[in-house]
Amino acid sequence: MFYLLRHGETNFNAEGLIQGHSDKSVLNDKGKMQIENAGRLLAEKVEYFDEVYCSDILRAKESWEILKEHIRYIRVSFDSVLREQFQGCFEGLPYTDSNWLLNKSCVAESELDVESRMADFFKNLDSEKEILIISHGHALKLFLSSIGVGIEKIPNGAIIKMNWNLNENESPVFEILTS
Question: Which domain holds residue 21?
């Protein structure tokens, strides 16, 4: 069973700024509370996690530091594969600034590349284990879309419980857990 957790709200989320790989974006008070609530909910639902995988970007690691006080786990690993889509020179700009959409000179990661790296990561996981993955909204959304799960937006601090085995070409069964 997989539990996918989007990091808590950050200052960049609240201000409508593009985050990408930026470590200037840190959890705000609301984001910390979202993760506290997620931690309590996960503690109720799961006896322990066999494995925890967390993006190595600061806001995900901050979420892990809060979450680990609530759950039991055997092992945690930080992995750059779970990062948000790289947005290059657009990081820190407002989403409402339409000029960033027109700038073709800035190097950024394609959505297809994000889908591919996330799918490759999931292929190596044991779906028989209880696994928690802490990642980012757009990266998770792109991955889920690539396996046929259409979710318009994954809120900060949201948990998606997913029963699925990529290697057996099953249709994923999922639910969004809320506290």
Answer: 2-177
* Residue 179 pLDDT exceeds 60: no
Q: Does residue 7 carry a catalytic annotation?
A: yes
From the list 9, 21, 62, 84, the catalytic residue is 84
Q: Using the predicted structure, report yes or no on whether residue 169 has a pLDDT greater than 70.
A: no
Do residues 177 and 157 lie in contact, with contact meaning Cβ atoms separated by under 8 Å? Answer: no
Average pLDDT over residues 118-144: 94
Whole-number mean pLDDT of the chain? 91
Q: How does pLDDT run across 71-83, given as a tens digit for each residue?
A: 999 999 999 999 9
Q: Catalytic annotation on 84?
A: yes
Structural domains of the chain, count? 1
Give me the CATH number covering residue 48. Answer: 3.40.50.1240
